[in-house]
Design goal:
Elements lengths: L3 H4 L3 H4 L3 E5 L4 H12 L3 E5 L15 E3 L6 H8 L4 E4 L6 H6 L1 H22 L3 E7 L22 H19 L3 E7 L2 E2 L12 H10 L5 E3 L5 E2 L2 E2 H11 L4 H4 L3 E4 L5 E2 H10 L10 E3 L14 H7 L7 H14 L5
Helix pairs in contact: 3-9, 4-6, 6-7, 8-11, 8-13
Length: 330
């Protein structure tokens, strides 16, 4: 969880209030749930546990084990919530290519239902997990929110649709919805066991087994790798931000720093007790993956007062330290 010195200032806004985190047993959602619980919020998590784990929840959080597509469960979860953090989604680009219909149902229809339920429940703020996949395969870098979307996967298309739904609800209803466009989030609790596992957790698992990982592509593709604490901070900043500044807006959340996969692999390997010898195996690029990505975070600075608080090196070391003690990497 975030260092308490970074988040105590948000206590007056969340203490004693009900906060709903959809997907709150998953990677990003569980970190949000822990921060909110620490600040005294009454935390409810709606999660079907398809990609999350109940043990990820903070003590005292209410878990409603169901899909966001379950209208009864959704209504129960959002009842009385003033803050909604919508993190539930099909999160993998390759999985969305394999299962486009399921991706659209969960990520588009599900988002609309969460927005509508939040509106009906009288929620004051909804923070939506959008994605840098909106910028496509050959974006102008650094990527800015006013660049036209250029989607290369059903996942990317579904996340842009979610942004537009948030803007539509903000303009037509008394619901301040804001979309936070995440750039390649990593950190503890990111599941390495899915066939669609994110790259840093997949690298860490292979190294902990004493093997070099496989890389899709040449390893020189770049990302704006963003440690989880930065994302939690961004959500906590977005929740109390003045509605006239953020309602219906899309805001990049990254670090503004670009790193290639080979450099990240080298840093993870250096954090091993005994670095794994050899070189990674290389394969063809995955369908739907962009070549390069880095955020322009000027809007986040202007509208939220956001500044990254954990850099790549510190985040990789923390992630590897967690992985060494986690049963998920056994």
């Amino acid at each position: 969880m975030l260092n308490s010195t970074h988040i105590e200032r948000f206590r007056p806004h969340v203490e004693g209030r009900k906060a709903l985190v959809t997907g709150g047993a998953g990677f990003i959602g569980s970190h949000l749930a822990h921060a909110l619980a620490h600040l005294g919020a009454r935390v409810t998590v709606l999660d079907d546990l398809s990609g999350g784990h109940a043990e990820n929840l903070p003590e005292g959080a209410e878990l409603i084990e169901a899909s966001i597509l379950d209208s009864g469960a959704l209504a129960k979860a959002v009842d009385g919530a003033k803050l909604v953090f919508h993190q539930a989604a099909m999160v993998s680009v390759p999985e969305s290519v394999d299962k486009p219909e399921g991706c659209c149902e969960v990520n588009i229809v599900g988002c609309q239902r969460v927005l509508d339920a939040a509106k009906r429940a009288g929620a004051e703020r909804l923070c939506f997990a959008a994605s840098a996949a909106a910028y496509g395969d050959t974006p102008t870098l650094p990527s800015r929110e006013d660049h036209a979307p250029d989607v290369y996967s059903p996942y990317a298309a579904s996340k842009v649709a979610g942004e537009l739904l948030c803007a539509t609800y903000a303009r037509n209803f008394d619901l301040c919805a804001v979309a936070l466009r995440y750039f390649n989030i990593f950190g503890p609790r990111q599941d390495p066991n899915s066939p669609y596992a994110a790259v840093i957790s997949a690298f860490a698992k292979r190294l902990l087994k004493g093997k070099q990982p496989s890389i899709f592509g040449d390893g020189k593709q770049t990302r704006d790798f963003t440690y989880i604490d930065n994302v939690v901070l961004a959500n906590l900043l977005a929740a109390p931000a003045p509605a006239e500044r953020v309602a219906g807006r899309t805001i990049n959340i990254g670090t503004g720093e670009q790193s290639d996969l080979l450099s990240v692999l080298g840093a993870l390997n250096a954090a091993m007790d005994e670095p794994v010898p050899g070189e990674p195996e290389f394969g063809p690029p995955r369908a739907g993956d962009e070549r390069d990505s880095v955020a322009d975070i000027s809007r986040a600075r202007e509208l939220l007062g956001y500044e990254p608080i954990v850099g790549l090196s510190e985040g990789l070391a923390a992630t590897m330290g967690w992985a060494k003690s986690s049963s998920h990497f056994a």
